[in-house]
Amino acid sequence: MRRSDEMESMAVVVVLMAARRRRRRSKKDGKRQGEIILKKKEKGGRRRYGEEDNMKRKREEEQAKVPAEKRGKMARRETTVQIVAGSYERVLHGINATISLDEEKSKGRPEDVGEGEDQVKFTDTFLFQAHTSAVRCLALSPMPSADNKQQQNVLLATGGTDDRINLYSLSVSPMSADTGLVPLPSLAGNKVLENPRNRELGALMHHSASITAMHFPTRSKLLSASEDNTIAVTRTRDWTVVSSIKAPHPKTQGRPSGDTAPVGGAPAGINDFAVHPSMKLMLTVGKGEKSMRLWNLVTGRKAGVLNFGREVLTAAKEGKWGTGEGRKIRWDSAGEEFAVAFERGIVVFGVDSVPKCRVATSPFTKVHHISYLDIETDDEKKQLLVASTEDGRLVFYSTAPDSLEELVEGGDTTIPTAPFLFQLGGKAHGQSSRIKEFEILPLQENSKTIQFIVVTSGSDGALRIWTIKPEEIQQTKQAKRGKSSKPGQPVQVGRLLGAYETGNRITCMKAFIMREPIGEEELSEGDSEEDDDDDEDEDDEDSDSS
């Protein structure tokens, strides 16, 4: 019995050992198979990753072959406009308007007013009380070069009736949506996104009366005019007044006998000034003066005076009880002519100060702002005179010598009339109130203007953005040349893209087209560069003081 039991136990041990060996073999085989599978996967993965790298490399090579302008066009089909508006309520308001450039959305006629309103997205960037009284005028410095990475900002100057000029630095690039900055809350329901690159620089208080006009001829100089009959030239490097031009006070002529104004209380001050493109001459028009003055900016002295004769005042629709003073004055970009805007009319002078033509709005209304627009049609560059009116229109005129209308015998003046070409806006097209100021910004691709972005502002507190295509201007001029338009019916151009209600009575406005949005890395780099600039300015001040 014992022998049989021992044999059975040995058999059980042998079976168990055999089973253990089989399990070990199966584990080894499984491990080997797993290693083989992993190796195959790694090999296939390396092959797949290599294919992706090759495809990525091919895409980069194809993109490198495409010009930079076309890549920007393919990557970004929208543009951002920085708008700055001042108001009677002492408020300075900054808005970013992002405009979609989708061709299908931008199709439409001028009559389709509400069709493109979803093409513009408005974002508040700053909103505060900049002055202790009404903001009267604004000025923006020229855009810096795109190659200068350390100077990607523009200078903003605001002038008010509190005799102050406030100075600010604005970024030329909007904030990107992926910067991680949380939009600020707003009770008005508007989207608010503050740009950390925007900052305050200080204030200038060298004028003793309300600021009436300002202009940056270059980034290094700021010219400011005031009701104290002075024009100050300020150097922007250290904000020092380097020169001051003093205009004489006007003589009190034709004032009513019952006028109780005190001595020296007669209307005085400079309404507006215009710097010649050569930066050597300047024209000014002032209150209580039926004349304009020519100044030599090289010497800072008066170079001449041109009185407005009866013929000029008649052409400008200045009646017997009119002031006869120029309200606005502008040079064209070539410096060959300048326009003087009166209360209800405009007279264009040549470089020899001889009246060239006149502009009479139809229907007869007040003129608030004027500007020259450079256009290029049929490989030919021309300029149009643009004026904003009391009835909410932008009217376009041609001042070219070959386009002036013939004189009518027995007329009240011998000055030719500039032909009316077309208009933008009006009561029937979304603009019923007066346009105080406007900006026409050319949007370019491949050094060619693809459309004009027009920003208008008025006392109703609304900012409106329009678009005009060069093809519309070309077709309108051809129709005018062929006399195909209906007589008495104005030709409408442009299309309303969107409107923004500020809630304030706007007195002045400036705008410029911004560049590519900035991200977090560029933002931090920009902050460090600004700190470096501040350190350099402090070093310069220390060296000057020593």
Automatic annotation (TrEMBL):
WD repeats lie at residues 454-476. Keywords: WD repeat. The keyword Coiled coil does not apply. Residues 18-75, 516-546 are annotated as: Disordered. Residues 48-75 have a biased composition (Basic and acidic residues). It comes from the Eukaryota. Residues 19-30 have a biased composition (Basic residues). Residues 519-546 have a biased composition (Acidic residues). The keyword Nucleotide-binding does not apply. This is 60S ribosome biogenesis protein Mak11. It comes from Arthroderma benhamiae (strain ATCC MYA-4681 / CBS 112371).
